[in-house]
Design a protein that fits this description.
With about 300 residues, this protein is of the alpha+beta class. The protein has 3 domains: about 90 residues, Rossmann fold; about 100 residues, ATP-grasp fold, B domain (D-amino Acid Aminotransferase, Chain A, domain 1); about 60 residues, Dna Ligase, domain 1 (2-Layer Sandwich), CATH 3.30.1490. About 30% of the residues lie in helices and about 25% in strands. The protein contains 9 helices and 16 strands. The strands form 4 sheets. A 5-stranded antiparallel β-sheet has the order 14-13-12-15-16, sandwiched between helices. Helix 1 packs across helix 9 and helix 2 runs antiparallel to helix 3.
């Protein structure tokens, strides 16, 4: 098979592992910089071009699109979908996952466990927003934050009001969210491929840090998740339409709650913690599912 990876940094662990796994299984694989792709948008012969050549003849595309280039990355993926190329995660699903508000609304509609969340633009109703989240302590998030940036734990009512007013002054959209104290600064990343959890790890924030992101110094260990957690992760990925996803959950007193569903989950942490060949599992999934014109949305939406 011929596989194309859309990624800006070929040297990253995740991308290098995908190349290694594909070659090991006898496939041809190529990485191109998503932002260097450009498009010929036509009715009869839509094209994606790269450095003067037409990108064609690929059996599958693996989008590894960073949050900062979501808009352009989705456009490139859509163009491949219009050509009938199988995309492991489709453009519509990537867009759902990157829109934090929309993803939470879709998950809530399906009855998937979530922390109680308020959403606003104006700080004028901060008292009610704090009450919605169950009062202090509570978590306040910028809608566009990633890797734990733009996320604040407000320990008191006055601190929460101050943060909300500051975010309001930035003319930013923000969420107030229930603080799951019993999680103890840890979360679970369940790696879903093709409707199955293939690996799971517990991420523990460093001492004094409520955010468990590995980018912020957290540690990762393999973990055995419960059937309810496994079902929640699978349902969350399916609800957003993702074939490959990292589903982040907290263990609360009322069961697992989903914090985020990542459409381009990293491989280094999960492979290091579990010892599992996640890159190989992704390539195996492509072998079983990549067919021309199998994209559900075909670039629509």
């Amino acid at each position: 098979m011929r596989i194309l990876v859309l990624a800006r940094k070929p040297s990253l662990y995740s991308h290098a592992r995908l190349v290694e796994a594909a070659k090991k299984r006898g496939h041809e694989i190529r990485i191109v910089n998503t932002l260097r792709c450009y498009m010929n948008i036509s009715s009869h012969r839509p094209e994606v071009r790269y450095q003067g050549e037409r990108l064609e003849g690929f059996d599958a595309v693996i989008p590894r699109i960073g949050a900062s280039i979501t808009f352009y990355g989705m456009a490139v993926v859509r163009q491949f979908e219009m050509q009938g190329v199988y995309c492991v995660n489709e453009s519509v699903a990537i867009g759902r996952s990157r829109d934090k508000l929309r993803s939470l609304q879709l998950l809530a509609r399906k009855g998937i466990g979530l922390p109680v969340t308020g959403f606003a633009h104006s700080p004028g109703d901060s008292d009610d927003l704090i009450r919605i989240a169950g009062g202090a302590p509570l978590v306040i998030k910028l809608l566009e934050g990633t890797h734990g940036r733009g996320v604040v734990l407000a320990d008191t009512y006055n601190a929460a009001k101050s943060v909300i007013e500051s975010f309001g002054a930035l003319d930013a959209y923000f969420m107030t969210q229930e603080f799951i104290k019993e999680a103890g600064g840890a979360d679970i990343r369940a790696f879903v491929i093709g409707g199955k959890v293939v690996a799971a790890m517990k991420r523990q924030g460093k001492k004094g840090e409520f955010r468990s992101n590995l980018h912020r110094g957290g540690s990762a260990t393999a973990i055995r998740i419960t059937p309810e957690e496994r079902s929640t992760a699978v349902r969350a990925a399916k609800t957003l339409g993702l074939n490959i996803a990292g589903v982040d959950m907290l263990r609360s007193n009322h069961g697992p709650v989903v914090m985020e569903v990542n459409s381009s989950p990293g491989l280094e942490g999960i492979e290091g913690a579990t010892g599992k060949d996640i890159a190989g599992a992704i390539i195996e999934f492509i072998e079983k599912n990549a067919r021309p014109n199998r994209t559900r949305t075909k670039g629509k939406g």
